[in-house]
Design goal:
Helix content is 40%, strand content 18%. The chain is an alpha/beta fold and 367 residues long. The protein has a six-stranded parallel sheet. A five-stranded parallel sheet has the order 11-10-7-12-13, sandwiched between helices. α8 packs across α13. The longest helix is centred in the middle third of the chain and has 22 residues. 35% of the residues are buried.
Length: 367
């Protein structure tokens, strides 16, 4: 029976245009959605090392690159390119250069002002077959640049939803830190201390006090997968007691976040993904005030109040502590009602097991 089903799937796939995954490291997630292991993975449109952006853009629009792109994909028949690099402006423009290629993009993170300005600046040259947005608001913004657009959440997050028991006396802070000289935000540059350390220090000191008072363990989900020592050194400077939780892969983070009673984040996309499926999560996007970044407010680009039941943009120890208390001692069902009150699906949707995503994606591939 299994052999027959696999043969049927292979025959089904062969009836449709070729499918390529960009980058190739994301093959597994798309194989899981489409139910086949016959997808080809390629690395295209990646900025070459040691070449500045302007030079690369000229290279991309040159006749040489167009020929190379076509040769790479062996485009003598229709192909569909699936990619999680929705913020790669070159990929957004690629469909105009390769007529037989259908570009299908999946949003893989929340986007700042730089992203939206890029869309506006290049809108005459952008056209894609389909865009799978994380939320309804992003779907509306991209709808004029795509044949089809959907609001179906993050495809990685959609596969992870378990009802396993969690550690009741534990809190997980989702770290976004990575070592750098500075963070470039358009024309602005912020030091590592300004962008990461000062914000994390302020929040984690309040969180540490909350954990001590209520006898809770403070756990920090590291961002690094390979070199974890830099994260341990970074948080050790803050003079707090914590356990560093290290994911074994990018997908492993989704199973980790389900093991704790409450999640806390500055503005991690992983936090928004967790809240979309009902996990109790507190948001403290303090960079909006501490770094004067208007695109770092809660649920940007939606216009939300600076303080709500489970979030605060203000660097106030009292406000942060009160919100931690509100959410931690709340039942999961009531938290889910609070999520519905703020129309959270405008920012992030949860399509359990990618059921709707799979249906829509196959329809696009068949066209």
């Amino acid at each position: 029976m299994k052999t027959g089903m696999m043969s049927e799937r292979r025959n089904k796939l062969n009836c449709y245009p070729k499918i390529f995954i960009h980058p190739s490291s994301e093959k597994k997630i798309f194989e899981k959605i489409l139910g086949t292991k016959n997808l080809k993975g390629i690395n295209i449109l990646l900025k070459p090392k040691n070449i500045v952006e302007k030079i690369f853009e000229k290279f991309f629009t040159s006749r040489y690159y167009k020929k190379k792109f076509k040769a790479l994909l062996q485009i003598n028949e229709k192909v569909t390119i699936l990619s999680l690099e929705d913020n790669n402006i070159h990929l957004l423009k690629a469909q105009k250069f390769v007529e037989k290629a259908k570009i299908v993009l999946f949003q893989n993170g929340w986007r700042d002002n730089v992203y939206y300005k890029n869309l506006e600046k290049n809108k005459k040259n952008i056209f894609i077959e389909a865009f799978f947005a994380q939320g309804k608001q992003q779907k509306r913004k991209i709808s004029k640049l795509a044949n089809y657009s959907f609001a179906l959440g993050n495809i990685k997050n959609n596969f992870y939803f378990k009802t396993t028991n969690f550690k009741r006396n534990s809190i997980l802070f989702i770290s976004q830190y990575f070592p750098c000289d500075h963070i470039a935000l358009g024309k602005r540059k912020l030091s590592e201390n300004d962008f990461f350390y000062n914000v994390d220090l302020f929040l984690l000191q309040v969180l540490s006090i909350f954990c001590r008072k209520h006898e809770l363990s403070l756990n920090i989900l590291g961002r690094g997968i390979q070199n974890r020592n830099f994260e341990k050194d970074y948080f050790s400077r803050m003079n707090i007691n914590f356990n560093l939780i290290s994911p074994t892969s990018n997908l492993d983070t989704y199973s980790k976040i389900e093991q704790y009673a409450m999640l806390v984040t500055v503005d991690s996309n992983l936090g928004y993904e967790a809240a979309a499926k009902g996990l109790k999560t507190c948001f403290f996007p303090l960079r909006s005030r501490m770094c004067n970044l208007p695109d770092r407010f809660f649920m940007f680009p939606l216009k939300m109040a600076e303080i709500g039941f489970f979030w605060s943009c203000l660097p106030s120890q009292i406000e942060i502590y009160n919100i931690l208390s509100n959410v931690f001692f709340l039942s999961k069902k009531i938290f889910q009602k609070e999520i519905l009150k703020v129309k959270f699906d405008e920012f992030m949707v949860f399509d359990k097991n990618n059921i709707k995503t799979k249906e829509m994606l196959w329809k696009i591939i068949q066209k």
